[in-house]
């Protein structure tokens, strides 16, 4: 009797392990993540979408992402966002400014965008 209970338990455990390993639907990373249409618009340079995303992240207290969208807006030439970015840049320490300038130089933005932004920032730094 005790031996048959052990066998039944062993078979049950083996079946459960095989089921969990072999017969579960596998999910691939990223399959469930819907693309936010606002992000798609912002990535095409839509200033309204960029402003809305920045405000969304400010409201969520995710200031790193809010600063990212500020950077993208300034890089794309939106005057109000560039002014705010310049204000933020002025408040940085020299070490932070150098790191920020290097980050812009090595970004994947177009050379025209980078040159425009760097000239504004370095012109501002000289004043």
What portion of the residues fall into strands of 2 or more residues? under 5%
For the biggest sheet, the summary is: none
Alpha-carbon Rg, integer: 26 Å
Unreliable residue stretches: none
What is the mean predicted local confidence, pLDDT? 86
Computed structural class:
mainly alpha
Q: What does this protein structure show overall?
A:
With 127 residues, the protein is mainly alpha-helical. The chain contains seven helices and no strands. α2 crosses α3 and α4 (63-75) packs across α5. It is elongated.
Characteristics:
127 residues; mainly alpha; 0% strand
Topology of helices and strands:
Blueprint (H helix, E strand, L loop, with lengths): L1 H21 L14 H7 L3 H13 L3 H13 L3 H12 L3 H12 L5 H16 L1
Helix pairs in contact: 2-3, 3-4, 4-5, 5-7
Describe the structure concisely.
With 127 residues, the protein is mainly α. It has helices at 2-22, 37-43, 47-59, 63-75, 79-90, 94-105, 111-126.
């Amino acid at each position: 009797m005790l031996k048959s209970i052990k066998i039944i338990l062993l078979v049950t455990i083996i079946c459960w392990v095989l089921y969990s390993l072999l017969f579960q639907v596998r999910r691939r990373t990223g399959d469930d993540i819907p693309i936010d249409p606002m992000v798609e618009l912002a990535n095409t340079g839509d200033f309204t979408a960029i402003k809305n995303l920045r405000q969304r992240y400010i409201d969520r207290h995710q200031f790193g992402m809010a600063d990212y969208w500020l950077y993208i807006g300034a890089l794309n030439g939106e005057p109000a966002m560039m002014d705010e970015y310049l204000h933020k840049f002025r408040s940085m320490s020299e070490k932070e400014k150098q790191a920020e300038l290097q980050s812009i130089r090595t970004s994947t933005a177009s050379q025209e965008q980078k040159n425009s932004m760097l000239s504004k920032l370095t012109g501002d730094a000289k004043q």
